[in-house]
RNA sequence: GCGUCUGUAGCUCAGUGGAUAGAGCAGUGGCCUCCGGAGCCGCGUGCGGAGGUUCGAUUCCUCUCAGACGCACCA
C-alpha cells in the first residue's frame, strides 16, 4: 500500500508536469509548521534556479493545478515558495479505513525474497549474561522483528563465544577438582556419563576461579592452554565434557533471553565455525592475500582512500592458533554456504568497529560473501550510569542481567501496589510485563549508535516518554473497547469517519504515517524512530480522548467511527510495541 | 601522536539544507457530577566556538575546543 506521502506526490507530479516542470520537484514532506498546513512541498524553491523563475510563481502555478483535487481541502502558495497542503478529512479517513483493513497496516513487503542474517548475541558459555549483553539483545531482537514485518526472511544467530582459552580453563579446573572423572582418563573407552559433573551455578563459579588461578599459577595456565589445544584437536573426553558445558549453558541462556522476550533461530557458536577455517584459509591463499608479518599470518586491508591506518587483519597468530577475525570469517563462509544471505547485520558494541572493518574487507577481497550481499555493522554505544560512566553495580562490579531485571520488576511492582487494588500475584505478573517494557523502551528510544544514560527511575516512571506510558495508553483503549462491546454487544466497526475537529484530525494524521514509520525504522536500522512515532500516537490519542466522550456519544454513527478509530490506534500501538519486543497487559 | 564518534533547554534525549529547532523530567499555574487523573491544557533560557559553501546551515565543508572510544597476535 502506498504511504500517504506517496499518495500526495501522486497528485503533485502531474501538476508539476502540466506546468512544464520536472516531476522530481514534486516531493512532499510533513509540515514543519503545523499551524499553517499538514504537508508541504518545497519543490518550487528547488526549481527556481533551474527555470529562472521566482519560486512563488512556480508554487502558485502548481497550487492552481491541484486546488480542485479531492485529496486536499486547502492548498496555499506562500511567501518564498512553499506549497502548503491540508488534506481533506474524507481523504484521510478513507485512507485509514484501508490501512485498518490491511493485515500489515499498509506496510509493503519490501523484503520479500530477501534473506537477512542477524548476529546480535555473542554471550560466552559458562558465564552469566550481564548488562553488556543487554543492548545487543534488545536492539537485535527489535530489528529481527522489523525485518520480518517488512517481509524479509530473517535468521537470528546468537553466535556463542564457546571456543578458545575459556573452555580450556573450565576443563582444566574441573580436572583439578575431579581428576577421577572418565573425561580425563587417557585409556577410557566406555560411554561418557550422560549427566554433567556440574550445574550452571557451578560453571559460573568455576570460570572466574580458573581465570584467577591461571594468572597466579603458571603451571595451571599452561595446563589450561594444553587442554584448549586438546579440545580443539578433538580429544574425545574433552569433547564430551565440552558438550556438557555447552548444553547446560545454552539451556540457561535460553531461559534468560526468554525473560527478555529475545529468541534466536540459530544457536551456532564459534566452535561451529572451526570446520570452515581450512577452506576459508585455502581461499585466502588462492587469492594470494595471506602473508607473513612479524610471525603472524595476515591480510592487508589498507585502502588508498583511507584517512587512517587500518592495520592488517591477523588471521593466524604466530603460534598458529586462530582468533577472533578467523572465526568471524569462517562464520561468514558458513553463512554464505548455508543461507546465501542478501545481508548480514552485526549488532555489536561500537568499540569493535575496527574489527568489523577488517573482517568485511577481507571477506570482500577473498569473495567469502557475494559482492551484492550487504555487510552491516551496527555498533551500539555504551550503557552508562547516571554519572555518565559505564554502568556498574553499587559495589562497582558488573551487574548481572537477572539482577537488573529483578530490580526493575520489583520497583514496578511497588508502584502498581501503591495505586491499584489488584492481587499481589496479579501485580507480580503485570510488573514483569511493564518492567520489560520500561527496560526495552528506555534503551530503544535512544539512537542505538550513541552512548546513553541508563536511569531505572526514569525508565519505570509512568509519566512522560516511557514504555509504561505507552502501555498505559493501550490499556486505556482496551478498557474503553471492552466496555463498548459489553454495553452495545457490537463488534467494533471497521470504517473510520472523517474527522470532525482538530484533535481527531491530528490523531488520524498521525495514524496515517504508520507504514512510513515502520518501513523507515527498518530501512534506517533505527528502532528509536518507531519509539518516537508510537509516542506521538499515544500523545495524539490522549489528547483526542480528553476532548471526546466516546462511550457517552449519542450519535451512533459518529460513535462507531470513533470506535473504529480506537481499534486502529490499538492495532498500531500493539503492532508497534511488538516490533520493539514487548507487549501490553490487560490492565495495570 | 594518529583516527573514529559525540557535543542541541538545568537534566535526559529527539530533529531538519528551508518559514517560529521540538519532547520528557525537574519547576510552576489550571482541569475530576465525566469512558482509567499513570491523563489533559498552559508558562522558557538552547544548536560547544570560528570561518566557508548556499537564495537559505543547527544540518554540508574546513579549522578549533571538550568528552568518549579505538589504534595487529584478547573477544
Task: Give an overview in words.
There is one protein chain. Among the domains are: 4-87, Arginyl tRNA synthetase N-terminal domain (Gyrase A, domain 2, 2-Layer Sandwich); 165-259, no CATH class. It contains 21 helices and 13 strands. The two termini are 35 Å apart. The longest helix has 25 residues, at 556-580. The strands form four sheets. It has a four-stranded antiparallel sheet. The chain has a four-stranded parallel sheet with strand order 6-5-10-11, sandwiched between helices. With 588 residues, the chain is of the alpha/beta class. It is 53% helix and 10% strand. The model has no long low-confidence stretch (mean pLDDT 93). 42% of the residues are buried. The protein is globular. The chain has helices at residues 4-18, 43-51, 55-66, 89-101, 134-149, 165-177, 200-216, 218-232, 236-259, 270-273, 277-286, 324-339, 353-366, 401-419, 424-444, 456-459, 467-488, 502-511, 514-523, 527-547, 556-580, and strands at 28-30, 39-41, 72-78, 82-87, 115-119, 153-157, 290-293, 296-299, 313-316, 343-349, 374-380, 383-384, 452-453. The protein binds one RNA strand of 75 nucleotides through helix 2, strand 8, strand 9, helix 12 and helix 13.
Amino acid at each position: 500500500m502506498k504511504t500517504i506521502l506517496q499518495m500526495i506526490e501522486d497528485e503533485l507530479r502531474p501538476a508539476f508536469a502540466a506546468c512544464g516542470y520536472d516531476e522530481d520537484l514534486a516531493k512532499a514532506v510533513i509540515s514543519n509548521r503545523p499551524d499553517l498546513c499538514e504537508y508541504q512541498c518545497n519543490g518550487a524553491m528547488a526549481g527556481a534556479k533551474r527555470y529562472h523563475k521566482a519560486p512563488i510563481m512556480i508554487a502558485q502555478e502548481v497550487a492552481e493545478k491541484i486546488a480542485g483535487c479531492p485529496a486536499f481541502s486547502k492548498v496555499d502558495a506562500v511567501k518564498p515558495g512553499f506549497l502548503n497542503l491540508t488534506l481533506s478529512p474524507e481523504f484521510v479517513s478513507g485512507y485509514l479505513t484501508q490501512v485498518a483493513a490491511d493485515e500489515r497496516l499498509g506496510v509493503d513487503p519490501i523484503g520479500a525474497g530477501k534473506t537477512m542474517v542477524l548476529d546480535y548475541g555473542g554471550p560466552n558459555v559458562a558465564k552469566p549474561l550481564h548488562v553488556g549483553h543487554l543492548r545487543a539483545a534488545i536492539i537485535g531482537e527489535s530489528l529481527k522483528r522489523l525485518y520480518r514485518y517488512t517481509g524479509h526472511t530473517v535468521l537470528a544467530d546468537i553466535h556463542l563465544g564457546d571456543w578458545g582459552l575459556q573452555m580450556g580453563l573450565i576443563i582444566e579446573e574441573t580436572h583439578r577438582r575431579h581428576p577421577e572423572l572418565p573425561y580425563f582418563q587417557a585409556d577410557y573407552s566406555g560411554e561418557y556419563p550422560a549427566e554433567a559433573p556440574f550445574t550452571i551455578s557451578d560453571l559460573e563459579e568455576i570460570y572466574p576461579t580458573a581465570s584467577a588461578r591461571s594468572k597466579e599459577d603458571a603451571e595451571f595456565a599452561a595446563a589450561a592452554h594444553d587442554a584448549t589445544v586438546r579440545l580443539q584437536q578433538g580429544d574425545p573426553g574433552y569433547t564430551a565434557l565440552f558438550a556438557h558445558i555447552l548444553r547446560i549453558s545454552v539451556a540457561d541462556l535460553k531461559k534468560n533471553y526468554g525473560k527478555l522476550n529475545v529468541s534466536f533461530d540459530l544457536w551456532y557458536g564459534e566452535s561451529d565455525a572451526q570446520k570452515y577455517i581450512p577452506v576459508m584459509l585455502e581461499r585466502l591463499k588462492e587469492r594470494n592475500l595471506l602473508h607473513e608479518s612479524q610471525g603472524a599470518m595476515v591480510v592487508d586491508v589498507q585502502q588508498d582512500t583511507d584517512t587512517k591506518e587500518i592495520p592488517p587483519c591477523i588471521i593466524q597468530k604466530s603460534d598458529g592458533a586462530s582468533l577472533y577475525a578467523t572465526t568471524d570469517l569462517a562464520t561468514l563462509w558458513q553463512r554464505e554456504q548455508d543461507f546465501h544471505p542478501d545481508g548480514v547485520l552485526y549488532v555489536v558494541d561500537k568499540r569493535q568497529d575496527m574489527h568489523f572493518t577488517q573482517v568485511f574487507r577481507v571477506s570482500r577481497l577473498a569473495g567469502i560473501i557475494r559482492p551484492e550481499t550487504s555487510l552491516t555493522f551496527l555498533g551500539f554505544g555504551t550503557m552508562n550510569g547516571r554519572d555518565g560512566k559505564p554502568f556498574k553495580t553499587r559495589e562497582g562490579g558488573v551487574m548481572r542481567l537477572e539482577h537488573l531485571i529483578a530490580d526493575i520488576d520489583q520497583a514496578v511492582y511497588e508502584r502498581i501496589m501503591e495505586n491499584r487494588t489488584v492481587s499481589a500475584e496479579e501485580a507480580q505478573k503485570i510488573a514483569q510485563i511493564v518492567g520489560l517494557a520500561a527496560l526495552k523502551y528506555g534503551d530503544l528510544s535512544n539512537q542505538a549508535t550513541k552512548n546513553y544514560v541508563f536511569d531505572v527511575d526514569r525508565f519505570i516512571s509512568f509519566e512522560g516518554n516511557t514504555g509504561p506510558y505507552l502501555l498505559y495508553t493501550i490499556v486505556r483503549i482496551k478498557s474503553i473497547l471492552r466496555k463498548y462491546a459489553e454495553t452495545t454487544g457490537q463488534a467494533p466497526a471497521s470504517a473510520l469517519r472523517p474527522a470532525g475537529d482538530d484533535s481527531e484530525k491530528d490523531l488520524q494524521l498521525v495514524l496515517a504515517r504508520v507504514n512510513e514509520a515502520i518501513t523507515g525504522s527498518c530501512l534506517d536500522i533505527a528502532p528509536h524512530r518507531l519509539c518516537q512515532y508510537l509516542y506521538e500516537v499515544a500523545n495524539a490519542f490522549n489528547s483526542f480522548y480528553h476532548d471526546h466522550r466516546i462511550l457517552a456519544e449519542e450519535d451512533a454513527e459518529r460513535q462507531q467511527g470513533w470506535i473504529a478509530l480506537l481499534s486502529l490506534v490499538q492495532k498500531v500501538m500493539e503492532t508497534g510495541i511488538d516490533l520493539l519486543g514487548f507487549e501490553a497487559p490487560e490492565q495495570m
